Amino acid sequence: MEPIRLAVNGRTDIGQVREENEDSIRWYSDQEQPFAYVIVADGMGGYSGGATASQIAADTLQHYLNGLLGDIFLSCSPQQQQLMLRAALIESINSANQRILDTKDTRPQFSQMGTTLVVAAVWQDFLIVAHIGDSRAYLWNNYGLQRLTRDHSVVQEMIDSGQLTPEQAQESQVRNHITRALGVSKQVEPAINSWTLTEDALLLLCSDGLTEYLDDHTIERVLATHRPALESVYLFIEDANRLGGRDNISAGILEFSSRSEAIMTPAEDAITLKPKKDDVTVRKS
């Protein structure tokens, strides 16, 4: 296998309107092993509540992922390592959900808080993405831009059923209504997918404060042309603020480099957990 190089960068911004930044972002690239991740959480729930929820989620996942690369993990086979990474994500998401619920029980002023979450982790050439809500992950390579997540939102369901076009969804009065979030119920259902990366690629993770203003074509153009690629996060946030900045804005970039030339292919064990019929609907403030 050709040597793999991973680099990350991230930024969060309060925007032009909000009085508080309810987004949280974490990013990390190991100096010795080909391991990196980006975490973005977009909180909701009134003054300080959203910021608390997103921070709990981001800190919890960061703690689990930072503790992954121990002797046992490094001694396992690649397939076992992939399963361990998936298990760590599932366990950390459940833990974050419970921590938010516990905080709501002890602090009544945070009773309405919750958060979206999107996380992407790369180990060697294995990419895994988990998300809840409408924070997104994208992948760009020489074949163009691919959205790796499907929003858990009312407008996405309306697009899927043919009631709205993607363009109409941008103007919808319910575009901020999400159908899944952390900290709402005991059971949490992340969508989880995995891929094998077989050529140079850029991963973008972002909150909806970015995608409210920048469509997929604009995102693709920036990722394809802006170099150094990791500095795209500053341009994305600058553009969203220039166009209105009504929400907090977060963007994280993970750069995957190898000398192998092929397309990104789905991992054999890639899965998406199906939503249940009793999904709740939550309106983000």
From TrEMBL:
InterPro entries with a match to the protein in the record: PP2C (IPR015655), PPM-type-like_dom_sf (IPR036457), PPM-type_phosphatase-like_dom (IPR001932)
Coiled-coil residue spans: none
Domain PPM-type phosphatase per the UniProt entry, residue ranges: 7-256
PROSITE patterns: PPM_2
CDD domains: PP2Cc
GO molecular function, one term: protein serine/threonine phosphatase activity
SUPFAM superfamilies: PP2C-like
SMART domains: PP2C_SIG, PP2Cc
Stored PANTHER family: PROTEIN PHOSPHATASE 1L (PTHR13832:SF827), PROTEIN PHOSPHATASE 2C (PTHR13832)
Protein name: Protein phosphatase
